Amino acid sequence: MSDGEATVGTSIRVLRAGVAISLALLMTMGGSASLGSGARAATRPARCASAGQVYKQDLLVQRENGELEWERLALVCGPDHVVKIVDADGREYEDLADFRAHNHLFSKDDKITVPRSFPSIGVTGNSGVDVVSGHSATSSGRRWLIAGLAAVPIIGGAAWAIARRRRADP
User: Fold this and answer.
1) Which partner for 117 in 35, 101, 112, 127 could form a disulfide, CB atoms 3.0-4.6 Å apart?
2) pLDDT > 90: percent of the chain
3) Could you report the per-residue pLDDT of 76-135, keeping only the tens digit for each?
4) What is the DSSP letter of 133?
C-alpha cells in the first residue's frame, strides 16, 4: 500500500469518526426544556373526553419587577382527545415544557404558578402547585452550539485530510 492510499484510508476513517461524533451529539439535543424548581414533566400528553371543549386556566404571574397579575390560558380538547394549551395570542402548545420554551408572554425572570396537574382537565382534589420560570431557554441557542461543536471534527478532519493529501502529492 502506498503512502497516498494510506493517507486516503486514514482520512476516510477520520471523517467517519467525525460524522459518528456529530450524530451522537445531535441525538443528545432532543427532549424538552427543563422545568426547573419543583415541576415535573408529563410522561404522556394530558387526555380529555370532549373533543372541541374549551376550558380556562388562570395562572398567577409574578413579573420580574415584582408585580402580581393573572394570565388566562385556554385548554382545548383537540379532536384526538389530547389537551392543547392556547395563549392569548392564539399560539398552541403541547405541554408546560413546550409552553415555557416557546411562549411570548413571559420572560425567564417571570414566575408563574401552575397546578401540578397542568394542563390536565377535570382533576379532582388538591394536586398542589408548582412555581416555575415563565420562559425556559429556547433550545435553538443550544442546538446551534451543539451543531457548531459537532461540525468541528468534520471540518477539522476534512482540512487535515486535504493537507495530508497535498503533502503526499509530488
Assistant:
1) 127
2) 28
3) 998 988 899 999 999 999 999 999 989 989 998 999 998 888 888 776 667 788 899 998
4) E
116, 94 Cβ separation under 8 angstroms:
no
Same domain, 126 and 151: no
Number of structural domains (the chain) is 2
**Domain carrying residue 15:** 3-31+141-168
What count of residues does the chain have?
170
For residues 101 and 123, state if they share a domain.
yes
Residues in Cβ contact with 169 at an 8 Å cutoff, skipping those fewer than 6 apart: 4
d(CA 112, CA 3) in angstroms, rounded, equals 64
On whether both 60 and 131 belong to a single domain, the answer is: yes
- Helix ranges (H only) for the chain are 3-27, 96-102, 139-168
State the amino acid at position 29 in one-letter form: M
CA within 13 Å, CB half, 121 = 22
What DSSP assignment string belongs to 54-96? EEEEEEEEE-TTS-EEEEEEEEEE-TTSBEEEE-TT--EESSH
Q: How far is CA 111 from CA 38, 100, 106, 115, 145, in A?
A: 13, 11, 8, 13, 27
From 43, 120, 40, select the one nearest 82 (Cα to Cα): 120
Residue that has been written with the C-alpha cell 469518526 in this structure: 17
